[in-house]
């Protein structure tokens, strides 16, 4: 089956010989694929938003007078000076003309000088980093955001970013390049593909030179590798943002299946793809996932994309993403002011598919399965109902406590299926699962539930370092007891009104096999912001991609 370019991945997908023959196609196998059900439809949509990653060049050298820097850069090139905050108004390093300003600049503040130091048509941006001995990766991230945001506001497409000596800071040039690369790409992101007037779109920086002031030998190769790593992941994070931000009439379950097929076709040796359509879901006993999506215009899918980066290893990781492409709430219908942005309820699956893109781009030496539990929770005469009792893939009967708690139903069938098919050692699921987690933690960090102290600790450390932060929440025996019923094996929602994030996580935990290390990330807050915060835009943020890649990189 040939596919069109989606703007995300561009390739040709051919099915295995058994599938091809049933449609009269070539019997030549080209990709290891299991597609259970009907033929995949052709995509028909607008091209996606470009990642807008700036072209970044790294240079280094000894300390240079600022006026010389301004004179050397081309016209219409901004010069950004990252400046340490001075204590007690201490004298600044540079020209006396700027001395007082440089001494007074505050952390996160940007001051702009036109025709700076008498150099015509050159604009200087002074960005406060913070006190020198306190500067770390987060300081660089924030300063990079403020710099890119201000340079773009001045309609400059090219800029030189001057980093003073890092000798007395908490950060290396390698880590600074990582932070700069990550945030430069993420700051440039704007979901404006449907804006028809080009002059109405927000400007962004297209070219950047990152210059390090050095004393002695500069680890050029190491710094460039760090930059490339960060930029690659940030591009995939922007892909996750695009997928989550795309509206449900475009980004439906079949759309995700098609994109997974196009990604798989990029590397036929390393990828294995399985797609279950609505008929196959019923035949395989994934009744919960099927029930969530059976009333929709676009039928449900389960997508499993396995990447084998280390054939010699017996260890397999699974990333499972909730992909509710639009959540009406079902018969427990969402109200106005709650329903409008429910195209974002696929942020978990978006992060997983984008992570698989980055895993391949970075050629990570790990074996990982990306699982997308895809459904549109809609309403018609065939809708599943509150208190309906449905058998799960695992065989446990589940009483549907609320049709607006659909994500957990889709996830548990996906969790069971991936365990039966691939027997992963470690599973991490990611889902915009509960409003209760937002109430507990806000939008700044995700809830972390796990059956493994080691996995929980590692994810928290990785998340803190990459600024995709997690906070541990409990799974108690009392939560298990609250899910038990006389009429079915489990309630999907439990009793009472409190602890709903823990209750949802405990429900998922019932479907994790003995001996499997598991973590559940409830990212209802950080995956979809109500307002822009620094480099994290309003709506889809792409939360989870950097976290997953940094975690998997440590498992190589």
Strand ordering within the main sheet: 1-8-9-11-10-14-18-15-16
Number of helices in the DSSP assignment: 16
Helix residue percentage: 25-40%
Low-confidence stretches: 1-31, 38-47, 89-96
**How far is the N terminus from the C terminus?**
34 Å
The quaternary state of the protein chains shown equals single chain
Number of strands: 20
Q: Largest sheet, if any? A: 9 strands, mixed
- Indicate the radius of gyration in whole angstroms: 25 Å
Give the percentage of residues in beta strands.
Answer: 15-25%
Rounded average pLDDT:
88
Coarse structural class = alpha/beta
Inertia-based shape: elongated
What's the layout of helices and strands?
Blueprint: H1 17-21, E1 32-36, E2 55-61, H2 66-72, E3 77-84, H3 96-104, E4 110-114, E5 123-130, H4 137-153, E6 158-163, H5 173-187, E7 207-213, H6 220-245, H7 253-265, E8 271-276, H8 278-283, H9 287-293, E9 301-308, E10 317-327, H10 347-361, E11 367-377, E12 389-391, E13 397-399, H11 407-422, E14 426-431, H12 435-441, E15 446-450, H13 453-466, E16 470-472, H14 477-483, E17 490-491, H15 500-509, E18 517-522, E19 528-529, E20 539-540, H16 545-553
Parallel strand pairs: 1-8, 2-7, 3-5, 3-6, 6-7, 10-11, 10-14, 13-17, 14-18, 15-16
Antiparallel strand pairs: 4-5, 8-9, 9-11, 12-13, 15-18, 19-20
